[in-house]
Amino acid sequence: MPVWEIIGWVGSILVVVSLMIPSVRKFRILNLTGSLIATVYNAYFGIWPYMVMNGAIVLINVYWLWRLYRRDSEGERVYEVVGTSGEAPVVQRFVERNHQDILRAYPQFSAESLGGASVFLVLYQEEIVGVLALQATVEGRCRIVLDFVTERFRDLTPGKHVYSDRELFAGIAATEVEIAPDTTSDVGYFKRLGFTDEGSVLVKTVA
Question: Within 10 A of 15 (CB to CB), how many other CB atoms are there?
Answer without folding.
Answer: 19
